[in-house]
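ok so for the tutorial part 2 we go from a plain amino acid sequence to predicted structure tokens. step 1 is just haveing the sequence, like this:
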Amino acid sequence: MSDIRKTEKVQLHVPDLEELRAVLKKGLDDNFAEVQVSVVECPDLTEKPFYFPVKGLCGSPRVTDVGGVPYLVPVVQKHKEYDMNAIAKELELPGAFMLGAGAVSSRVVGMNAELIPLVRTEAEGRPAVNSSYLASINPVDGQCLQEKYSQKFSDCNFGMLGNLYACEGRPGKVIEVRAKKRTGQDSIVTALRKTLEAEYPDKSLAMGGSFIMQKGKAKIHIMPREFSVCPLDTDEDVNNWLKHFEVNAPLICQSVLVSKDPGLDLRVEHTHFFSHHGEGGHYYIDTTPDSVEYLGYFMPAEFIYRIDRPKETHSVGRD
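step 2 — the prediction. this is what the tokens look like for a chain of 319 residues:
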């Protein structure tokens, strides 16, 4: 396993939920025709359509950026591998529930693939519950192949990079976002992030959670099963290597976003998704702005942990 002991911790600004609700409503109004933002009790996430291994998004909320894109491009560093159970302890929250976006361990899975993490990590007297999905390129037809991780593997590992929201998985008050008909240029995730950045320009805030794209289609990518044999030095190189698709709602998306990097070389937003119709991967933005509808649940994080930050860095491939 990679050296997770190289951890940096920063306390984040955490507004009152009612304050945050008003801020997000104002910002999203600039990007969507219909917006409702409320403070509500978190729905039971063990039920349809989520089927998470915990009931809620509350309890000691925090986010982490593990590894990074520089471990994937320009040249892959396959030895960079992490265990979510160990990450939870590094986050000072053993037994945490984690969701977000990452890459599989190619050593374990035997190929490269997108990981949609949904893990209740192990605690004393309780084993881990891994409800994650992986999305890869089907070698038969070149299309998306989504699989339940636990049906093939028994670990909680991931490789190279991960952006994770962690909490105790408890019920409680959360921010509910409803948005319809995109009128602006930004995805719902980018709109949320830019809203926080504009309202709190001198502070760092982070949020994590899950949202459903209920109607419409989305632009996504899936990494190829094989790593590039040539260095990927530019965004154009990366985009040419990735496989892009348009997929159909409903999509259940897991997202982590940070309003302002406090000097930790962060990926400021990252969203992966799964579905119950066999499509999963990395979410960019909806492609049907006139008909798209979103429903999401988010929580502000109290801390951010930067784990195993790459010594040599760049900004390529962070879209």
